[in-house]
Amino acid sequence: MKFSEQLHEKLQPIWRQNHEHPFVKGIANGTLDPEKFRFYMVQDYLYLIQYAKVFALGAVKADDLHTMGKFAALLDGTLNEEMGLHRQYAARFGISEEELETAKPSPITLAYTHYMLHAAQNGTLAEVIAAVLPCAWSYWEIGKELNKIPGAAEHELYGKWIHMYASEEFGQMAQWCIDLLDEHTVGKSEAELAKLEEIFLNTTRFEYMFWDMAYNGIMWPGNA
Ligand SMILES: Cc1ncc(CN)c(N)n1
Prior knowledge:
Elements: H1 3-20, H2 22-29, H3 34-61, H4 65-92, H5 97-102, H6 107-122, H7 125-147, H8 159-166, H9 168-185, H10 190-216
Helix pairs in contact: 1-10, 3-4, 3-6, 3-7, 3-10, 6-7, 6-10, 7-8, 7-9, 7-10
The structure holds 5-(aminomethyl)-2-methylpyrimidin-4-amine.
């Protein structure tokens, strides 16, 4: 069994929680309070700035030009396609680009991005991929699932978000990360695989916590 298939089995309980989360359900049926989406957009923008840096670290750790080029393309796609969508949403909400970039990250945003960057900076190329894969893979799964719901992708606020994560391009980049992880785990020791699984499951859990933080729409519970 490929390493990604083993991980896929282990993450099922968390993914089910993600798909059932009221934030994701609210995007699916169009009932999510736009204020919660606004809060999410700003935090997600801050998240993506750091996430893009993990792709840059992938290019640094890659040992062939093809892989370097792919990570460079992922970095470009994040900064210019995915974050471009966030900038469009921000404009709709009357948030300037400066305001977006200078907003304060919530403790969950900080914890998630710092964990990812720590794992990527200190780890092997396989560890870089293990840290970012849940982000790409889980959004692709959510995008595809929501895209099947009649009318969801036509929603005037949430439709573009669904289109982005259900898109062929987004799927191809998620699949490339899955394949690269499989390629880089062939022949690894049990201890190395256990470490990769731990990183992967931690960022998978952070994905759930990010939805929860966005749904609560507050920087931290004491600040409600
Ligand atoms: C928190 C989070 N995780 C993943 C993705 C998809 N790149 C995202 N935009 N935001």
